[in-house]
Amino acid sequence: MTNRQFMLARIPNGPLTPDCFQLRSCDIPKPGEGEVLLKARYISLDAANRAWMQGATYRDAIEEGTVMAGGALAEVVESRHPDFKPGDLASGDCGWQEYAVKPGMALTKQPNMEPLPHLLSVYGITGLTAYFGLLEVGQPKPGETVVVSAAAGAVGNIVGQIAKIVGCRVVGIAGSDEKCRWLTDELGFDAAVNYKAGPVYKSLKAACPDGIDVYFDNVGGDIFEAVLFQMNLMGRIACCGAVSAYDGTPPAHGPRGVPGMFVVKRLTVRGFIVSDFFAKRDDALAQLQTWVTEGRLKVFEDIVDGFERLPEALIGLLHGENRGKRMVKIG
């Protein structure tokens, strides 16, 4: 038996393309003391995968000639760590490979539940990012207007649904009329704006006549600027990602008028990563599970079948193909 891996063959100078990756086979590794051998079941795909190629973020940059990084839900095959035994499920940064050896302390043990993909989506980093970013950073109040960009994506669709649950008016920003209809008809958003259909500022003005109280930002760039000038006094902006700058040519300029707007409107702008709030993880997961069980929070997963399709699946995600959380099923 061999281990298939996708290596980062080259760091792209422009949009990500399939030739940036190289598929290779090698021997299955053996775990050392305190380590666990895992077999991937599902590999998570996120816009952050592309950002990691550009340099260090909250993790080290991915270097050419190394295994492509990425989170996974995996099954324990062999364990030399007391907290794990064969057959257990665990999540961690296992990379784009069928088998990985990781220190037990770097893994999160997961329950054996159905459907398994929920452990990477609503009950994984995706759901927790939406939960903490909106409720802890955005701090929405009933009756306020919440705007979320990349609203049809993995994090964005959950953010909008949670905002509705807590009594807010919700406006999503997405990249097609079809996605906008999905947000309003299927997920219950109050309005949605197609940023490709015309000036975002004007569309948002019509969708948010009373201004914007909370903005959950997944994209940065011109959309951030369009929202900024419509924020209400004491508004809050939760900065989760900047996908507009990840793949291809970065925006020609950053948001204009930032210092003056922040001061005059007394805005709170906070960047975050999900691990900032892991002390509250168990409570958040219990609440997310309650909402899902009650049918108040719908779960959408975009599952691509086959290890060999990882490169095309990530490229498609960066082009906005997915609705909800995209992942690749292995084996």
Q: Can I get a quick summary?
A:
This protein is α/β, with parallel strands linked by helices and 331 residues long. Helix content is 26%, strand content 27%.
Task: Write a concise keyword list for the protein shown above.
single chain, 331 residues, alpha/beta, Quinone Oxidoreductase, Chain A, domain 1, Rossmann fold, 2 domains, six-stranded parallel β-sheet, 9 helices, 26% helix
Task: Give Rg in angstroms.
Answer: 20 Å
Number of domains in the coordinates? 2
Question: Would you state the CATH class of the largest domain?
Answer: Alpha Beta
CATH architecture of the largest domain: 3-Layer(aba) Sandwich
Number of helices: 9
- Report how far apart the termini are: 14 Å
Shape verdict: globular
| Main pleated sheet | 7 strands, mixed
Structural class: alpha/beta
Query: What value does the average pLDDT take?
Result: 94
Helix proportion: 25-40%
Quote the CATH topology of the largest domain.
Rossmann fold
Strand percentage lies at 25-35%
Contiguous low-pLDDT stretches (5 residues minimum) are: none
Strand segment count: 15
The topology string of helices and strands comes to: EEEHEEEEHEHEHEHEHEHEHEHE
CATH superfamily caption of the largest domain: NAD(P)-binding Rossmann-like Domain
